[in-house]
Amino acid sequence: MEDVIARMQDEKNGIPIRTVKSFLSKIPSVFSGSDIVQWMIKNLNIEDQVEALHLGTLMAAHGYFFPISDHVLTLKDDGTFYRFQTPYFWPSNCWEPENTDYAVYLCKRTMQNKARLELADYEAESLARLQRAFARKWEFIFMQAEAQAKVDKKRDKIERKILDSQERAFWDVHRPVPGCVNTTEVDIKKSSRMKNPQKTRKSVYGPQNDVRTHSPTHTPAPEAKPATEEQLQDQINYWGGQLDRHRLKMSKVAESLLAYTEQYVEYDPFITSTDPSNPWISDDTAVWELEASKEPGQQRVKRWAFGINEVLKDQVGREQFLKFLESEFSSENLRFWLAVQEVKKRPIREVPTRVQEIWQEFLASGAPSAINVDSKSYDKTTQNVKDPGRYAFEDAQDHIFKLMKSDSYSRFIRSSAYQELLQAKKKKSKNLF
Amino acid sequence: MGEMDTLKKEADGLKTQIETARKAVNDTTMAAVASGVAAAPRIQLKNRKTLKGHLAKIYGLHWSADNRHMVSASQDGKLLIWDTYTGNKVYAVPLKSSWVMSCSMAPSGNLVASGGLDNMCTIVNIKAASPKTIRELDAHEGYLSHSRFLNDSEILTASGDTTCCLWDLETGKQKVVYKSHVGDCMCLAMSPDQNTFISGACDSSAKLWDIRDGGCKQTFIGHTSDINAIAFFPSGTAIITGSDDCTLKMYDLRADQEVNGYQDAALNAGVTSVSLSSSGRLVFAGYDNFNCNIWDSLKAEKVGVLSGHDNRVSCIGVPDDGLGICTGSWDSFLKIWN
């Protein structure tokens, strides 16, 4: 960016800087917005005005030049006047100005009795906030502001105008108008790992202010340590284990992903509009009310046929599945599965009691809702129940799940109860009459 | 150091063999298979709602399982819980440390979690008479970058100390520690069946873990910089990662490798966040350059852009019912689109 600025400031080929006469005074050292745009298009290979404005706004946001009568740092393609920022204040100097400096600056502004140097609302708020924060040091800050105001008064009027505007622009970058982009921001997730460039810790105004940063501590990133022998051995064991894993062919994998998206595309509100309408668009919450109701719509019922997981994850689906199985007097598998899912979520102190209850209900000899598990799982579960934890029934649950998937679930989908639900919506609308 | 050299050679040799094994199953490419599919429609999303209330950068958001409420975390030191449809703030939770990096809500809607540079995960019960901190999970040695509840008794966390962890909320202690990454863990996502989860880290790799036994089941490489965001494809058989190297990648768990990449020569901003639509066909990715791009997950083409924020999009989320998408930004606003 600084190369471009240097070119812009070049006396012969740069942007013409002039002093403009305005009502009672002269406005020194300015150029207009359209001047910048024109120059960019001519000298920087930029094709259109929009791009030039974008680039210009970015440079302004970083503080290389600024509008003289506005705090908001953007570029407009018109007669608005801009000025270059002095190299002292360039971002490349890595300023991290302290709040104390800002306080001195705002204080100084209030001492200057010119109407055009009055504080803007957000600046007045900041000043009030800083006064509260630095209450004890305020005398010190006030003295500094006074000292600076004195020095400024001695300067040549035109020089003062320019310096004042440049100082103001510097603060517009580091303490931007609320709502504006702050180009000096750093992501805290990355800041603790960054290798620090030499941040200029000294005060903007001289050596007096103490150096207390308000941003999180920058600890330099630890150098990546070369792997130890132990780590290398771990890696070898890991990758050795991974080598022989079964890998599915790309064609199968791609087909399956495609098939999934195709099957679910009608359930994707971004691609297929929902029926009833999407509440975010139409302001009508019917679709949420329908979801919450006990009466499943046709589309929802259709989805249960995609796979057993669809039935199990939909509350109404689970209820209907259970109802069907109860009508066949074969609901113990599903009830067991649901009970085990539930105990996994319980707080740990409730788990042992619950595990015992499940054991008594489903697995103990003479259990009222006896389920059939293979002997291996049965033995393992018997052991687990002696020292009950959340996963005591893991093996049994896996076995039961496979049974349900191949047997109970397919019967459910083929059942007349399910088929009726699928048609239910049509029936309901008939009943309205 | 002959021993070290031998070990290194062995490790590298294994990795090369694995790459060969992976290539061996490449009988085609996703691009070839997807060429037969109809193109996804061009997506033009409108901003339906803007949630205003935060005073500083938003670092995280998470939809409630009820598809209507949401929790968001900002550097103004607050967690806000919203009724997104009306735009009302239902609860405000003041945080002890304002350097928050993430937040999440339990499926029950009773608890929210937050954490950041304080290295702790703070659990708050928002359904109590007034929001009450019930746990401070304090064992990580680095910042807390991400968290997700399994239920009201267990939570997963990812940390800058390169580990992820499963905590028991009743005792406040770590139950399982997932160690294998060699860089800060930046993000995590749970599988639809809640038996496994994936994590992305600054070592440019993504890992799949068994929640119960803490073992790393698979590792996916290919990115050349920090992985900032990660999500499961809704089928649970593939994952999408977003990185500072300005690309997103889809890895399939069964093929054990990258099957698709989403990049554009013109893009030179890192990916900060990622979320998918319900069918998995659309990938929404937030970038450093204040925009979100919408990608067709199968054809790897851009099908839309979301621009409306005045600063970086730091987080993104699609609710379970897939009816919209919410973006959170450093400009302090949350916007809902569809």
Automatic annotation (TrEMBL), chain A:
Residues 307-422 form the RGS domain. Coiled coil: none annotated. It is a peripheral membrane protein. Residues 187-230 are annotated as: Disordered. Gene3D superfamilies: 1.10.1240.60, Regulator of G-protein Signalling 4, domain 2 (1.10.167.10), Transducin (heterotrimeric G protein), gamma chain (4.10.260.10), Winged helix-like DNA-binding domain superfamily/Winged helix DNA-binding domain (1.10.10.10). Keywords: Cell membrane, Cytoplasm, Membrane, Signal transduction inhibitor. Residues 191-202 have a biased composition (Basic residues). One of its GO terms (biological process) is negative regulation of signal transduction. InterPro entries: DEP_dom (IPR000591), G-protein_gamma-like_dom (IPR015898), GGL_sf (IPR036284), RGS (IPR016137), RGS6/7/9/11 (IPR047016), RGS6/7/9/11_DHEX_sf (IPR047017), RGS_DHEX (IPR040759), RGS_sf (IPR036305). SMART domains: DEP, G_gamma, GGL, RGS. Residues 11-86 form the DEP domain. Pfam families: DEP, G-gamma, RGS, RGS_DHEX. This is Regulator of G protein signaling 7. The lineage of its organism: Eukaryota, Metazoa, Chordata, Craniata, Vertebrata.
Automatic annotation (TrEMBL), chain B:
Pfam families: WD40_Gbeta. SUPFAM superfamilies: WD40 repeat-like (SSF50978). It comes from the Eukaryota. Keywords: Repeat, Transducer, WD repeat. InterPro entries: G-protein_beta_1-5, WD40/YVTN_repeat-like_dom_sf, WD40_G-protein_beta-like, WD40_PAC1, WD40_repeat_CS, WD40_repeat_dom_sf, WD40_rpt. WD repeats lie at residues 51-92, 137-177, 178-219, 220-261, 306-338. Signal peptide: none annotated. GO terms for biological process: signal transduction. Belongs to the WD repeat G protein beta family. This is Guanine nucleotide-binding protein G(I)/G(S)/G(T) subunit beta-3-like. It comes from Salvelinus namaycush. The gene is LOC120022768.
